[in-house]
Amino acid sequence: MRDIKRLCIILAAIAMAACGKPFSVEFTGDDSATIRMSKAQEQTLWIPVDNRAGEVQLTVVGSEEITVPLNVRMAVERVQYWMPLHLNAATQEITIKGCPQQSVAWEALKVGENPNAEQKYRQVAHYTPQIGWINDPNGMVYHNGEWHLFHQYNPMGSRWGNMSWGHAVSRDLVKWEYLPTALYPDQIGAIFSGSCVIDKNNTAGFGKDAMVAIYTSAGRKQTQSIAYSTDNGRTFTKYDKNPVLTSEQADFRDPKVSWHEPTQRWIMPLACGNAMEFYSSPNLRDWQFESRFGEVYGCHGGVWECPDLIEMPYKGGTKWVLFCSLTKNPDHGSSVQYFVGDFDGHTFTCDTPKEYTDFLGWGRDNYATVTWSNAPEGRTIALGWQNNWLYGGDEEFPTTDFRAYMSLPCELTLIEYNGRAKLVSRPVKEFSAYLQGIYTQNNIDVTEQYALPVELSGENALWIECVVENADAEAMGIKLSNDKGEQVVISFDNSKQAFKVDRTQAGESSFHEKFAGVVEAPMSAAKEQRLTIVVDRASVECFTDISATSDLVFPAQGYNHITLYTAGGKATVKEIKVSRLEK
Ligand code: FRU
């Protein structure tokens, strides 16, 4: 019996080799197999994946980067897409555990060019991963003229898993260059969210101006680890005494480190269950507990995640702002709240009462927002994950080989509003270089409907800026629609004093029952309202005087009609400018 099994295995291996593929597959029983590349050279092996399949374990034998097995949803019944595995001359053997021999994946393994078809929901203005899953922006740091964006990344699929740090750089925050995965999971754990700093005074001893990444190692426990780069973030060396900070707490993650000049210490806010904790260090290696904030403040529901603590100019002085991502906002999943107060290097003191909170964004799709470290000219620039844990991580999603985006990078300022300090966000000014005006008009009186006379292909990102005045109508707004009758309705609702974005008929929404819905954001009492709308292939982002929204949409074809409308009265669009954003 054993001999027959051996013979089958050998015959299967020969069959694979004989069909002209540049690799052989040897099945070794128990749903295990070894893939051997025929030539020891740099090449890409494309692994067939199905997001509905269970996970199998893939080991790259002899790899110095991928040192622990990765989990892959290898296709059993259907191939949905392929994920690339980059091999160098030293890594020519891959073992797979858990994928039955009759799976369609074995026939569909490929070497060479990307076999995936181009997808329609790749954004134009928004950072979109080349392939694979992304969540939180991580390690955002400006260095030597480059804006670095690391992010939570699954290099082996478009659903969450194998948490690594993907990497891209930009010179203007608009155009991005993809770089190889910066940090892969290791023996201590997966690489969860964290930050990067430039160690100008060489406090850690890794070199002057070393880029130091501080991240959560998510293994049996969550602990904090560090890695450093002395080549502009192109390669990182993990510190050999990791982890540098441990705890018995189950949720202990997402370090966002910055230098605190008055105390000459690094400060690390960490998300710890229902609260944020602050740690300090002279050298990024030895950390000491300072204080804890939050249990009784603001909004709770699920744990807090992804803190950021920043000092911002306010009324001739400064204020400290603490960002806090909220896993489960009771109403709509992921969202980001913030608190304004003071920080003395040890303790955060909140200015607002315990029950008060404010949100950075009011749309459904802007999470884990944090700011760039070391940004020039004192700029405060934030970026968030454009997705929501409520529906964004499930089996079904309207994209296949990549999943989700980053929100637009936004400049933050603190203004005084209703006697309190309030954060206002605006897309960074660098976008203006990519805008081509296609329509401008002043003083349009609107009663019911006014279709803008613009020819739109629905292909590009649109940038709509307007000033509206509504003394009379119950509501006024803008509808974006396509020839299939799908639409997004954006409105100022005077009767409810709310700004609204309605995506109930925006396009595909069947992948999750909670996706279709109407977002409400605060609206100022001003008679005149300014509004910027950024329409991309899979999202609509709005910026009013006091609030911002970011919402995914999946129309069958791009919106190519813009209609001004009112309900119950007349309103005036004092100015409107429509531009196309092309990169
Ligand atoms: C937030 C988060 C973080 C964690 C990461 C894991 O979206 O849950 O708290 O570090 O994602 O991918």
Textual characterization of the structure:
The chain has 2 helices and 41 strands. It is mainly beta. The strands form 8 sheets. Strands 32, 33, 34, 35, 36, 37, 38, 39, 40 and 41 form a 10-stranded antiparallel sheet that branches. A hairpin with a 4-residue loop joins strand 17 (258-260) and strand 18 (265-272).
If you compute it from the alpha carbons, what radius of gyration comes out, rounded to the nearest whole angstrom? Answer: 25 Å
Structural class given helices, strands, pairing? mainly beta
Taking all residues together, what is the mean pLDDT? 95
Strand portion:
over 45%
Point out poorly predicted stretches. none
User: What share of residues is helical?
Assistant: under 10%
- Overall morphology: globular
Instruction: Please report the number of helical segments.
Output: 2
Number of strands: 41
Bound molecules: beta-D-fructofuranose
State the major sheet.
Answer: 10 strands, antiparallel
Q: Tell me the distance between the termini.
A: 63 Å
